[in-house]
Design goal:
7-stranded mixed beta sheet, globular, alpha+beta, 280 residues
């Protein structure tokens, strides 16, 4: 079904998404899938019927956004909307619902032990990037390797070392410019890794947050980042380049191995010297 008829993307474009999604995963060694996020605005809701016909899409109910990301990184196609989202902070960020007063005034974060003072929590939410209320109808999340539509944002959730190579590829696409990121260690997947890349058209890094680490299977050595889909092709190109030399050389830990060898030789020399001294 063509884009002009059904609202979905061309077969060629989708083949490229799938193949490059696989390259991204395999070249970095990721063990779960890179995730595509499609923002379905109110004016584009007709696409939902096409998605449901084209793929086994699960409409989530009582799910947090970070849990939707978890499902997609493990291979599922999921749809999350105003009725299905359960996290009030994420619902506010996506413009589905107003932020509850208990969160807005900061007392909620203090109650969770996330902040010591309510004023701190209040400021954290004051700085929250969000969508216009009512603009978004739903969010469609899926593994890039089985994409049936081009995403707006790509999310990677994996080991920090693997994320590092994605960031380095991005630095290459920006001709060496440093990556500046924004986080309050709050709303790591919804705001830091999705809304900021979507609105500000740039990569954003996060350390995770209380919510996603409590609600999903993200590991202690894992974190999350997001970037606009417009940077996807270039990032994959540079990941392929890095995989030819930089990635394997770094993972071989040649310099560290040499250091251990030198230290071992010093210990051996000391032991021989002490043995000779005793014999004398």
């Amino acid at each position: 079904m063509g884009k002009e008829k059904r609202g979905l993307d061309s077969n060629f474009a989708l083949t490229q998404v799938r193949e490059k999604g696989k390259v991204l995963r395999e070249k970095t060694g990721m063990y779960t899938f890179p995730v595509g996020v499609k923002f379905i605005l109110q004016k584009d809701i007709a696409i939902i019927k096409d998605l449901m016909k084209a793929e086994n899409v699960e409409r989530l109910n009582m799910y947090r956004y970070c849990q939707a990301v978890m499902e997609a990184r493990h291979g599922k196609h999921v749809l999350l909307d105003k009725e299905g989202i359960s996290c009030p902070a994420a619902a506010a960020a996506f413009g589905f619902k107003s932020l509850p007063e208990g969160l807005k005034n900061g007392k909620g974060l203090a109650g969770f032990g996330i902040t010591k003072h309510a004023a701190t929590g209040r400021e954290m939410f004051n700085g929250m990037d969000s969508l216009v209320m009512g603009e978004l109808n739903s969010l469609y999340l899926f593994p890039l390797e089985t994409a049936i539509v081009e995403p707006d944002v790509v999310i990677i959730e994996d080991q920090v070392e693997r994320l590092m190579w994605i960031v380095l590829a991005y630095v290459n696409t920006k001709e060496g410019r440093r990556v500046e990121s924004s986080t309050a260690v709050l709303q790591a997947t919804c705001v830091d890794s999705t809304i900021i890349p979507y609105k500000q058209h740039k990569m954003n890094l996060s350390y995770g947050c209380y919510g996603c680490r409590d609600a999903t299977d993200i590991g202690p050595g894992e974190s999350v980042l997001g970037f606009p889909y417009s940077d996807f092709d270039s990032i994959v190109e540079y990941v392929e380049y890095l995989s030819t030399k930089a990635i394997p050389n770094s993972r071989n830990k040649n310099a560290y191995t040499l250091l251990k060898k030198r230290n071992a030789e010093k210990i051996l020399e000391t032991d021989i010297f002490q043995m000779n001294k005793k014999e004398e």
